[in-house]
Amino acid sequence: MEKIQSFQITDMTIAGFKSYVEPTNLVFGNPTVITGGNGRGKTSIADAIAFVVTGLPFFGERGIDRLHNEVQPDVSITMSFVDETGTAHVLTRTRHKNRMTILYDSCEIRQMDLTELFGEKDVFLSIFNPLYFIEELGEDGKNLLERHLPLISHEAVLAQLSDATRAALEHEQLLSPDTYLKKKRADIRELEETIIYLQGQKDLADSQAQDWSRTVEGLSARRDTLIRTVESLEAKRFGGLDAKAMEQRLVELSARYDEAARDGSPLDAEILEVERKLAARRAEQYQSPYTQAVAEANARLAELAERFNRDKQAFHACVPGAPCPTCRRLITEEALPEIRAALEQSSKAAIAAGQEQRAQLNELTENDAKARAVFEQFQADDVAKLEGQLAGLRAQKTEDSPADDLRSQIQQLTSDLEYGNLSEAEYAQLKECREELRECVADLKAAQAAAEQRPEDFDGKIKAAQDKITALKKLIADVAIYVSERAKLTFSALKMNRVEISLYDVVKSTGERKDVFKFTYGGRRYDRLSLSEKIRAGMEVSELMKRLTGRNYPVFVDNMESVDDLNNVRPTGQVIMAKCVSGAPLAVRPVRPINLAQRQAA
């Protein structure tokens, strides 16, 4: 059914409705004045008009039984009206034995058909009853307004903005600015948390770099000390000795010994060979295959120990109000147990890793000791075997020969070349320092590699996140301006003479929309107005609903005796005014009759 955009009531017949027992015919004009004393049926006429259209009374209350006349149980209301084209229509609503019947131009229809004709009940009653929208609908009234407010296009809002703001927002999807702003603020919070995390990682990397730097310094100092000790012992070893002359002398003695051996006992050459093997085997030094692995294990163990000490210090430093040692946020009472638990867990992990690393180091050390013991055992066995061979050969030789003296000299010169001026203890110290120096150099190399490892560009990442936050805050500020301008354009549709309605306020600092539902009349709150002021305010709201919905329906103004005038508003449709006159009978007087011929011609 087609929408009725405008209508005026010409007459109405009421029977069995409230105080109306027998059929009563009433004629209406524009305007129409209804007078009479209290209880004469003035407000019942308003209820009857609302009931025939919506099935509810003037203020929309539920409970139809109270609308029945006590004497006549059958309700019958017939309303004749003309629409915007001048076409006459008749709408009848009857109720007989709980059965409701609706006839429109003699055709039976349903309530939903009436809703299509006149709009939903809240729309009709908000126009017909000036007090209905403000006093009855509440939050539903806000939703009703929002459904009928005109949509403001994105382009229309952009046209009100500055060139810079327009350029920033013209490609943004702002169908729901509130959702858009929440998303951007969530992005900012995520970036801020990222910055906190990166700062903590940067501090941790700086601390680790300082630890490795101190380790390098300590190992460098130890290396230099060992080098000086080795150089000092080496200098003493050959101080005042001509090593080259001694080596040349050894070559000469060996040649003479070979010659004597050829001329002497056939055992001499064999004895000399055994002596050389014996001297060479004795001079062999153990070369550990575990030096590099032990150095790396020691470096890792030192790192874990440093981490444990750092976590332990951080645990004791964790108090409410202090910065978190990892993320740098201030510690709260609520977060303290969680942070301490995390540090304790980290310490336990460091201890576990350290115990595992210590076990690996012990295993390496044990393997090294076993390898050394095997080497020394093999060396001792070989030396004992060679000494036995040598003793046997010498026992076979019963007479002295020149080769014996040469052999004694060669042995002494070989010992002098090996020990020089050093005592056995000093020579052992020299060997020990050389071995420790090799291990120290290996440890230093590993520590330098760790210290020189290039860290992540935390400063660059932090700067990039800060730049994104700045850009997002600028965008949020632009959207706040956008929301404010859109609100202005939206509220312009609610503009009335003395009444102001606020559905929401815009928080300028954030651009967020704060839901409100406020009415004022002449700047005063609605709940503080007199009855006459409330009626004047309601008339403006009724005209607003006409404008927003495109429906121009009659307006029924009750209690007109309390209103001096309606100069604040110019009604655009039919006005029916009820006025209490003490003791007077009911009178319905059309001030200006509705001229059907003129309406049809128009």
Q: Would you give an account of this structure?
A:
The protein has helices at residues 42-54, 111-118, 121-128, 132-137, 139-148, 154-158, 163-169, 177-237, 243-263, 266-283, 291-317, 336-396, 402-419, 424-451, 458-492, 531-549, 596-601; strands at residues 7-15, 24-27, 32-36, 75-83, 88-96, 99-104, 107-109, 499-506, 513-521, 524-525, 555-557, 575-580, 587-590. The chain is of the alpha+beta class and 602 residues long. The protein has a domain at 7-138 and 548-601: 3-Layer(aba) Sandwich (Rossmann fold), CATH 3.40.50. The strands form three sheets. The chain has a six-stranded antiparallel sheet with strand order 2-1-4-5-6-7. Strand 8 and strand 9 form a beta hairpin. Helix 9 (243-263) runs antiparallel to helix 10 (266-283), helix 10 (266-283) runs parallel beside helix 13 (402-419) and helix 11 runs antiparallel to helix 12. The protein is rod-shaped, with a radius of gyration of 55 Å. Mean pLDDT is 86; it is low at 597-602.
